[in-house]
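Hi V.,

Quick status before I head out on leave. The structure for the redesign project is tokenized and pasted below; the design run finished overnight.
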């Protein structure tokens, strides 16, 4: 094994960025999530809004990829993507997703499970209209997750749509938009010293969140 990988196997760091306890938890996990996200942004965590989204395919095989969280609303977590991508098809077929945020600088992880639903078209329109023009062209030009014969094919597709929309505003493609992930469980993990980490799981009951502490 290379020296770098040897170091990986043997490296251990301690975690000392505060604690979570029964007395400082809100009733609603989205309040705590928002606080942690704001702390990640203020703490200059790189890509604080990057999250892993996992879906399942027709064989029950989990599939993960990173996307950006773009909004936090009362219902849950919003991200934007191509509705006909692999993740889009898996969400259409099964709806169940898991999200994972890792904020290493703060020794924090948040794990979420829930159901993803398309957001209203007007909301996607509004967000799409604010994207840079090249991202708007990209949404039209890239058949996300489909096989390309070459990079050239992609560049030609971009050129085609640039020509088509020259001098005009670019409408949102019907195959592109947002999902809101409506959570049914959220676990907060705060690293502590000596591997005695704090973990709190919020599970949605009939009309309130049940909170339990989990062993690290
Ligand atoms: C930091 C980062 C942010 C990303 N953000 C998005 C995003 O917001 N939306 C998106 O569709 N893909 C995003 N991607 C690309 C996805 O990881 C993935 O490659 C793409 O969505 C296709 O996934 P799928 O084939 O599983 O559907 C991002 C990738 C990285 C590394």
């Amino acid at each position: 094994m290379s020296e770098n990988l040897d170091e990986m196997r043997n490296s251990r760091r301690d975690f000392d960025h505060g604690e979570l306890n029964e007395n400082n938890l809100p009733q609603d996990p989205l309040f705590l999530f928002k606080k942690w996200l704001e702390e990640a942004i203020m703490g200059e965590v790189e890509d604080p809004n990057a999250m892993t989204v996992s879906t399942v395919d027709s064989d029950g095989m989990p599939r993960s990829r990173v996307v950006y969280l773009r909004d936090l609303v009362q219902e849950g977590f919003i991200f934007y993507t191509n509705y006909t991508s692999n993740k889009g098809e898996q969400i259409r077929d099964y709806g169940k997703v898991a999200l994972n945020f890792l904020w290493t600088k703060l020794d924090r992880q948040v794990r979420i499970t829930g159901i993803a639903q398309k957001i209203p078209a007007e909301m996607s329109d509004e967000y799409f209209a604010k994207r840079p023009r090249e991202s708007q062209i990209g949404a039209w030009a890239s058949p996300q997750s489909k096989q390309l014969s070459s990079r050239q094919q992609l560049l030609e597709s971009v050129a085609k749509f640039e020509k088509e929309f020259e001098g005009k505003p670019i409408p949102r493609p019907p195959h592109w938009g947002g999902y809101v992930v409506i959570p049914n469980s959220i676990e907060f993990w705060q690293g502590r010293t000596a591997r005695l980490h704090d973990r709190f799981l919020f599970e949605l009951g009939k009309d309130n969140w049940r909170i339990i502490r989990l062993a690290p």
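Above is the designed sequence. The first strand starts at residue 50 and ends at 56.

G. will cover questions while I'm gone.

Best,
W.
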